[in-house]
Every structure is written in C-alpha cells, then in structure tokens.
Request: fold
Amino acid sequence: MVSIECSEMETLINVEEYSHSMEMKVRILDLDAGGKTIVVLNEQDARDLGVYSLDRVIITTEKDSLTAVVNTSDKFIPQGQIAVFDEVREGLCLTAGQDVQVLPRGGLQSKRYIRRKVNGAELTAGEIEQIISDVVERNLNDLELASFITALHMRGLSIAESTALIDAMVKTGSTLSFGKIACDKHSIGGVPGDKTSLLLVPVVAASGLTIPKTSSRAITSPSGTADRAEMLMPVNLDIEEIEYTVKKTQGCLVWGGALDLAPADDLLIQIEHPLGMDPLLLSSIISKKMSVGATHVVIDLPTGYRAKMKTVEDAQRLSRQFINLGTNVSMKIHCAITFGEQPIGHNIGPALEAREALEMLYRYEVSDLTEKVTSLAGILLHMAGKATSKRQGKIMAEKILKTKALSKMKQIIEAQGGDPRLKPEDIPVGEYCVSVTTERKGVVRWINNKELVRIASAAGCPKDTGAGIRLMKKLGDTVQAGDTLLEIRADKSSKLSQAERLAQQYPLMGIIERWDRAMILHTVA
Amino acid sequence: MVSIECSEMETLINVEEYSHSMEMKVRILDLDAGGKTIVVLNEQDARDLGVYSLDRVIITTEKDSLTAVVNTSDKFIPQGQIAVFDEVREGLCLTAGQDVQVLPRGGLQSKRYIRRKVNGAELTAGEIEQIISDVVERNLNDLELASFITALHMRGLSIAESTALIDAMVKTGSTLSFGKIACDKHSIGGVPGDKTSLLLVPVVAASGLTIPKTSSRAITSPSGTADRAEMLMPVNLDIEEIEYTVKKTQGCLVWGGALDLAPADDLLIQIEHPLGMDPLLLSSIISKKMSVGATHVVIDLPTGYRAKMKTVEDAQRLSRQFINLGTNVSMKIHCAITFGEQPIGHNIGPALEAREALEMLYRYEVSDLTEKVTSLAGILLHMAGKATSKRQGKIMAEKILKTKALSKMKQIIEAQGGDPRLKPEDIPVGEYCVSVTTERKGVVRWINNKELVRIASAAGCPKDTGAGIRLMKKLGDTVQAGDTLLEIRADKSSKLSQAERLAQQYPLMGIIERWDRAMILHTVA
Reply:
C-alpha cells in the first residue's frame, strides 16, 4: 500500500523536486561571462520559479535547450524578462525579445555524489563519470566545484577513483590516435627556462618514434612550451593539421588548449588554480596524455628547495603514484626526478628560449639543457624498445641531437606551416636591455628562481615575446666584483624600468666565498 | 647579511607580490551583481596587471578606494576600460568615462588561514578575526568561501574556534544593548507553521522581562517569523525604531535582515545554503543573539523523523554544544527539544498563521501551539529569575497568555507602527480555496510535512501572503471516509491549481486503523 511506504516516499520527494516553467522574453546583455552560461532573472520571477541565485534553470526554445546559472536582480531586469550573457545567446541563437521557456533544474545527482565525497565516501566509477559529465556540460556551479576540489584535496583520491576520473575526462573530450606506440613527455613544471621539449621532440621523432606533443601556454610562468614553440612556427593547429604533421614527421609541437582534449581538466583547473590546490594533478596529466593516444610517457619532476617538489623523497612518492595510475590505464610511465634549483639553460622568455633551443640544434654544446634533453629522450628510446638501456638511449639521443635533430626540426616547422630556414638570430628579442651586475666576489651558490620569474613577468613575459632574462652566471660559476650576473630584455622601455626596479628589491643570486663563512640563514627580532 | 637570509627572503617574496597599477576609464554596466563588487577587464589588460578571473583588484579614485573581483572579457571591453557593476559604481560614486587607478590586490592573509584550516590546523582567534573581516569587506571570493565552508563542514570547529568566530561576527556588525538582562528565543527550524514567537514575545514582555526579537524571512519555508509578524504590523524597523519599541513595550517582533547584525553570518549563509552545509549553525545563531544583546536564550530544537534533528540523542548532542558555546561567551542558554513531527497549530502561510496566533490571544485554548509557547516562555521566566522553576514559569506564562498577552501585543503592534485594533478576521487570506478529502477511515498516524511545505510554496507562499494550508486533522485525530483533511488557499487561481495537482501526487497524511495491520514500510523490487 503506497500511502504508508514512508521511506520510499521521502526519497521520491527529494529527487522529484517541484517545478513549473515560465515563459519569458529574452533580453540580450552583450556581455560575456567568461565561458559560463549565466542568465539574470528578476528577483520576483526567480522566487516564483522557486530558484535562488546560483541555482540552475533550463532554458528552452523551439529548437534547443541549455542549462544556465541564475543571477538575480531586483532593479535592472523587469519581471517577465530573462537577461542572457553571450554564452547563452550563442548557445541557443537567441534574439532580443524572443520568448523562451524557463524551468528550474531539479537537484543534480552530481551534487549528491560530491556531498558523498565531502562526507568521506569513496566514489564509484559511475558517480565520477556523472560528475565529470556535469562539469563539461557546465551543470555544476563554482561553489559546488570549489567544494568538490576542496574535498578531493582533503580526502585524496584512491587509485580506483583516479582511474575512473581519467576515463571520464578522456571520454568527455576529443582524442587522437597514432597507432600502437606513441611517446610523450611531460614536466610537472616549476623551473623557469625549461625548453627541454623543443629539443626532445625532434630527437625522439628523428629516432623513428612517434611523439605528438601538445603543450600549454604560460599561466603564471614567463613562458610555456607552446609560447616558446610559437616563436619557431604556428602552434594553433586543429586535429587534422596535427594528424598531417605527425604522419609526415613523426612529431609535432602544438598548443593543446583549443583541441577539446579532456576539457573537464581545463574547467577544473580554473577552480584549482585560484584555490591553490591541485588534487587532480595526476589524473589531469595522464588524461591529457591519454587523449593524444600516448602509450609511453616520461614525466619530469624538477626537484629542489625552490621547485614544486622539495625533496627527492616527495618526488619519489609522486612518481610511484604516476606509475601505479599509469598501469591502471595501460600507459607505460617512467618518472625522472631532475635537478630543479636553477633555470634550464641560460634564457627565460619565449623568444630568448626559442633562440637558445634553436642554437643548440645548430651548434651542439654540452650543458644542463642538452644533458636533460638526452637523458629524458634516452629513457623514452629505452621504454619504446629502440635502445637496450637508458644509458644506451642517452648515447643514441646525443648522437641524434648532434646530427639529425636539426633537419627533423625543420621538417616539423615546415609541416606546421612555419619557415624551416629560420635561424636563431632571426627570432626578434626585446630591443631594451639592462645588465644586472654584482659588487661581490665568490661563487654562485643559489639562484632565486621565483624572483627571476617575477622580473621576467614585469618585463612583459609571456605577452611581449621578446622580453625575458639571459643569465650570464649559473650555479657554481665564479664571480668577480663588477661582473654581469644577468641581462633583462623588454619590448617596451616602461616595462624594462619596472623589471629593473624589481631586480633591485631582492638578491637574485647568492654569491658566497665559502658556505662555512655564512652560517646565519635567518634572524627573528 | 641580507643576501643569504634565504628563508626570510622567500617569505617576503610570497607576501609582497609584485604589482603595478594601471589607469583605466570607467564604463558603467547598469547591472547589479547581486551584492558582489565585480568589474570586467579586457583580457590583455588583466594579463598586463598580472591578474586572472576571480582575482581581486583595488580601484582607487581621488576620494576613495574599494576592492573588487575581476571578470575578464576578450570581446566586449576594449583595452584601457574597466566595466563596473552597480555595487562598484555606487561604492565609489563613479561616472562614465572617469579615470580610476586599478591595482592588483596581493595575496590575502585570510586565504592562507583558510588553507590552514583545509589542511587540518586549528585556527587562532586572530586568524578567524581576519577571515571574518575579509568576508565582510568582500575580499574573499566565492571559490574561497566555498572552500572554507567545505573545510569547516569536514573538519568541524573547536569550541575555541566557534567562540572566536562569534566574537568576530558580532564585532564586524551593528549591536543593540538593553541592559543587564535581555531574553531571546530561537528555533533551529524545520517544522512548518511554527508561530510560537508571535505569542511568546508578548507573554515574556508582559512578565516584565525584555525580549528584543529579531527574526528572518522565509528562505525555503512557506513563512518565516518576520513574514508572519508583518501581517500584524511593520517589521522593517531600523535600530532607533527598535530601541524605541523595546523601551516602550519590553518587546519587539522585527525583521533582522537589514540591521547589519553579524553581517558575516548572512554572507556565509549565502554560500552554505546552495552547498547544503551548515557548519556555522551554532556560531551563526549565537552571534545573532549576541548582536541584539541577548543574555538569556531559549533554543528550540524540533525533533523527529521529518525534522532537522532526527533523534533526541542528536538533539541532546547539539544542545550540549549550544550550552558550552554559550558559557564561553557569557550567554545563558537553555535548549528545549520539542516534538517536531507535525505542523505547530493548524495553519501554514503568513496570513493564516498570523490569524491563528492573534485568535489565540483573543481566545485562549489549550493546543500544541499554546503548550509550546507557555513551556518555552516558562523556561525563560525561570532562567531570568521571575519563576522558581520551569513548571512555575509555565503556569505564570499560561496565566499571562490568558490575561495580559493581548494588550501587550497591541502595545507592540502600535509601537512598531501598526494598528492595535487589528482583529484576526481583518487579516486577508487567499480567496481561492480547495479541500483535500480522504476515502480512508482510521486515525492520522503521520503527516508529510515536506509535502505540505511544497504545496504551500506552490500555492504562493511566502510571496502571496494569503496563500497557505489549514489542517482540519492532526496526529491522533479520528477520520471517517469523506472527511476533509486540509484546505489549500491561494491568492491566484492558477497557483491553486498547481498546488492542488501537487497535493494529488503523494499522500499527505497516513491514515491507518491500527499500526499492527500495516507492517510493510518499504519494498524494493
């Protein structure tokens, strides 16, 4: 008898929330909401609909429908109108004055799953899939996403959860596939001037392996791999152009941002970044690599006092997690814990870094940069069966870097639509330049990476591509009083002055004769 | 020597983030942002300033400055312009085309304190004070607040943290004070039709005690105490008017929403509500009571299968926390765990409930409503020393309710600007009415409170003040086939039909001859 089945009934009531729709006239705001689908309702109308600020409504036209987040206003929107931001207008092809049906969107299952995670439960694959699908469809609002990220940060993810998350993130986006073996390389970042990929891709491709490298632009750093590569060739390729380039050259160096690869990852990073949390680090990286069809991946973990990983032990722990997770999704992963105490090579900034990488292809020279490139490439050559050991792989990679890498890079540049005749000196760098000298004498014992990043940003990086820093001295170098430590470059003189002012605020390098003559690290008064 | 004090230096760099200001022209959006201070910058300008979407900037005019949250747009805002929502325009008295200075706001200490809580630390009073101050100054964005609420929900608050939170919430708002003893009553809510305060205030005030009762409007329920009281008199009083009323009559029944009492609480509730979390329940209630200067407070915890507190044990646990916390802030608290399985009295909806309360003052009658009023008032009379025991207090309260409460209520109505001659039948109720009958016979064993709330909302509550429900039967009443169980009223016929349709979806009352003839509660197929 239905009338006394209390527990079932209460459940039904929770799921099937009461709702009725309302017909409203569209008002175009001519404003974009930063990628979010937002509408503004009169406060009374919202009340009548039973929705509150940040609740969702489903907007339906004769042809289509879309979920949007509600803002309310008591003054500017009259009753009966629905004001739409660009994302909603475009999504539904709305015109001013058009009638639409507005229906409160009932409780999302995903909200409950997030709540389960908050309360300490392990989520099932199905629950994670639903959450990620609602992330991609923009059904979850910022509060819910922030709560989810915070809960993941606090509770952590099990291997099963991470695996399900990767599957869901890959499934909800576009994917590439290049056959049975495809190599890839990823750095967790945190070291300025790391142009390793620019050299590693031609080396690996020249060995006969496939390496479809997608990369990101700078968010908080002076330049990302995509920013550096763009100094050499177009990087905004679409899926077809990438397939053409890789088929022709075995490699590519493209921007992954507009390819719709694991889009949930990008949306969640927009929440993680302002919160300063990255519980999805592992899943995020692996899902991007899965999306491009990578089967063998080397992951670089720069480690050191000023890097993301402070100790080798921390880096080992993270490496173990990468590898376990990789096993679960049938991806071979090898982690390399690298020295992360100073910039890689001498240059920081898109154009300066591209120049440095290209110079190294034209004129090989042993350095921390080439050492890093050949070590990581050697690992990939070994993983993919081209070399019998990492050591063997490194020797092969060195040989390729000295001989075939330049012509491979030219092929890639040409296939991506660039000019293969480009010389390092053709890449324009900032015309305004200032040197930073020292009055001290001794040996460079530490370099303040964070401060270098701030100076490069102040000089205009990454937007002003010619801006940046060139280090004249690196760790272990001997310095005499009056020596130039570094040069700052900028495209605009006003930015150069800002950067210069900043360079005077804090010491950029520690120059000490002997460590045992400087025992006080910090005093508290 | 400064140059090697690494740890100190790194700290400084973290705190003192690099920033430079930019002069921009104001563009007026003529849009309000729901109480938030939001500006829109061109994406390039934002990059030049080094800020991202949801970061904060400080906007400075010649006279004043204000912190706002950044949104970015690549299309609609040209470089050099800053588009401002109404809250920012009003806050700085801006006009279109005016020049303002825009400066990135560096990292907030509060963000780090929130992060400490996320990571499991107990916050100090100073840290909590800073967080609450940044909440009130709108320096923390929604993501940060959602993360904070989630962390509080997951980690809980220590007594010391709750105490500090209360202090901070009271300190950042307006306060009232009515001398050495001021009584107050609060219900954690969850039972429909609870008009207890409307009768308790005149009873307590007539006993000679002071009771400055502020209350809220309905958020998700059919009516809040402020909505009910507004049927009898104006409730939108300012601080001076409240002081006048209380001085004159010992009591008041006003809306607390616009009084700036513990404003942090209201801002945090806006985050808690959509997340469905209320980690601040205790601090929130006590800070509101502290703000009105309450010294003796009775807290009502309606308990039962369909109430917020499911068991007496749960309610006891929460009561203990209320009392401990009260002790810490020198507030005497007495918790009353009350029967919360059915509506209080017979009526639900602002006008219907106000009528019912006023009727009870004109013509006393023993009922669950008067029983609750006199019990709770009796506790207050005992706490404040007017009665030697709760039992004694209840008897005093009954006597007052039968004799002096009506004239006290008339005084309060008059002092708040209402008409003391108002009779119950003068309060207009919805003209559209429909009865819900039953074909069953037996005894009412349960009442579906949630469903009643949904029906009252569909009928127009709380906006349509005449809408609501009148119960003809309550728990334990005998029912014959054909009897009317309840009436639904609405101000609009369309809403009545919606409510009626809803009333047919689920059983509203469980009518069973004997419990032992209905053993199956739920089946799963």
About this structure: The mean pLDDT of chain B is 89. DSSP finds 19 helices and 18 strands in chain B.
